[in-house]
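Fill in residues.
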C-alpha cells in the first residue's frame, strides 16, 4: 500500500517533472491518503488546501483523478465536493453519482443546469431524495428521467410520477422504469395504460387494415379491462383519485362502470357515482345500498348515466348483497367470478339488457377467473 501514499519521492518527482501525468498521479495518491483518519488536524487542513489547489488545475485529468478517488469519501470538504460537481462532465460525474457530502440543494442546482450527463448521474445515485427526484421529474431530459424512473432508490412521490408520465409517458424506456417499481399508484398505472394504448393503436393502424373506429373500439376495451384490474383491491382514497382522473380525461364511461360493478368492484361503483353526482363517497354508498332502490335510482339520475345501464347496476348491487368472500387463497378472484356467473345466469330475469360488447367482456373475464378452491394443505404431523 506504500506506493499508493504520497511520499517525498513523489514530491521530488513532481518538482522535477510537473507534467499533467505526474500531477494526476500525485493527485490520485493525495486523494487516497486523505481518507487516512490518522492524519492530525493540521495535516488534514494542509491536505485540504493542496486538494483545493489541485481542483483548480488546468489539466482535466488531474481534476478527474481527484474526483474518482474522493467520490465516496465522507471526509471530503463540502466546498471541494461542490467545486468538483460543478466541473466538466468527466470530473463531475464520479462525485455526482455517489458523494454523500453533496446536499439536496447542491444536486437540485446542478439538475437545473440542464446538463444531461450530470442529470443522469444524479438520477442513478443509490438514494435520490424526494426533492431532488421532483426537480429531475420537472427539468430532467428523457434519458435522465428514464434512469430516475428505473432507480428503486429514488423517492418518487405520486406528484413526481404524474410529471414524468405527463412529460415522457410515451417513452418506452420511461414506461419500463416506472412499471418495474415496487409500488405504482393506480392513477399513474392508469395513465400508463392510456399512453401505451395510444401507441398500440398507432402501430395497429400502421400494420393492419383496421378502420379507425374498429381500432378505437379495441383500444377502449383493452384500456377499460386494465383499469378495472388496477382498481380492484386498492384503497378507497386511491380509487377516488383514479375515478377523478378518469373523468378529467373523459374515460369514466358507462361501460367501465357497468363492468366494474358486475365484477363486484363495488368501491369503484361507489366512487364513480359519487364523482359523477358531486356527492361524498359516504353519501353515495348509503344511497347505492338503500334496500328500497330509491336511493340507487336517485343517485343514478343525478349522475346523468344512460337509462339503459340502470338494470345492470341494480342487478350488480342486489347480487353483491348475496355474495360473500370465502376467505381462502385467491378469494377475490373467485368472488368476481361468482358475481359474473350470477349476473349472467339471472340477467334475463332481472330485466338486464347488456350491450353485446359488455356481455362478451364479462364472459371473457369469467373464463379467466378461478372457479375452484385451492387444494387443501395436508395437516402436519
Amino acid at each position: 500500500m506504500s506506493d499508493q501514499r504520497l511520499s517525498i519521492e513523489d514530491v521530488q518527482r513532481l518538482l522535477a517533472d510537473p507534467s499533467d501525468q505526474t500531477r494526476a498521479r500525485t493527485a490520485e495518491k493525495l486523494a487516497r491518503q486523505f481518507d487516512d483518519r490518522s492524519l492530525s488536524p493540521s495535516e488534514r487542513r494542509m491536505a485540504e488546501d493542496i486538494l483545493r489547489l489541485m481542483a483548480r488545475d488546468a489539466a482535466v485529468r488531474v481534476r478527474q483523478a481527484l474526483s474518482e478517488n474522493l467520490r465516496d469519501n465522507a471526509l471530503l470538504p463540502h466546498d471541494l465536493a461542490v467545486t468538483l460537481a460543478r466541473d466538466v462532465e468527466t470530473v463531475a460525474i464520479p462525485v455526482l453519482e455517489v458523494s454523500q457530502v453533496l446536499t439536496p440543494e447542491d444536486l437540485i442546482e446542478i439538475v437545473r443546469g440542464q446538463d444531461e450527463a450530470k442529470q443522469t448521474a444524479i438520477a442513478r445515485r443509490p438514494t435520490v431524495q424526494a426533492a431532488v427526484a421532483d426537480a429531475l421529474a420537472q427539468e430532467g431530459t428523457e434519458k435522465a428521467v428514464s434512469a430516475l424512473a428505473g432507480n428503486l432508490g429514488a423517492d418518487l412521490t405520486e406528484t413526481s410520477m404524474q410529471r414524468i408520465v405527463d412529460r415522457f409517458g410515451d417513452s418506452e424506456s420511461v414506461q419500463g422504469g416506472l412499471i418495474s417499481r415496487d409500488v405504482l399508484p393506480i392513477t399513474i398505472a392508469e395513465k400508463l395504460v392510456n399512453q401505451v394504448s395510444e401507441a398500440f393503436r398507432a402501430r395497429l393502424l400502421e400494420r393492419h387494415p383496421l378502420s379507425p373506429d374498429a381500432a378505437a373500439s379495441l383500444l377502449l376495451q383493452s384500456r377499460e379491462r386494465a383499469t378495472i384490474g388496477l382498481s380492484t383491491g386498492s384503497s378507497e382514497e386511491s380509487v377516488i383519485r383514479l375515478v377523478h382522473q378518469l373523468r378529467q380525461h373523459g374515460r369514466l364511461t358507462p361501460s367501465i362502470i357497468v363492468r366494474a360493478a358486475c365484477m363486484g368492484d363495488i368501491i369503484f361503483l361507489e366512487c364513480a357515482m359519487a364523482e359523477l353526482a358531486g356527492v361524498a363517497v359516504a353519501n353515495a354508498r348509503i344511497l347505492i345500498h338503500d334496500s328500497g332502490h330509491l336511493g340507487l335510482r336517485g343517485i343514478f339520475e343525478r349522475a346523468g348515466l344512460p337509462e339503459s345501464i340502470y338494470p345492470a347496476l341494480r342487478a350488480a348491487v342486489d347480487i353483491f348483497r348475496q355474495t360473500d368472500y370465502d376467505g381462502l387463497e385467491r378469494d377475490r378472484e373467485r368472488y368476481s367470478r361468482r358475481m359474473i356467473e350470477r349476473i349472467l345466469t339471472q340477467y334475463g330475469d332481472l330485466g338486464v339488457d347488456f350491450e353485446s360488447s359488455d356481455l362478451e367482456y364479462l364472459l371473457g373475464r369469467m373464463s379467466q377467473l378461478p372457479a375452484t378452491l385451492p387444494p387443501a394443505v395436508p395437516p402436519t404431523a
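The mean pLDDT is 81.
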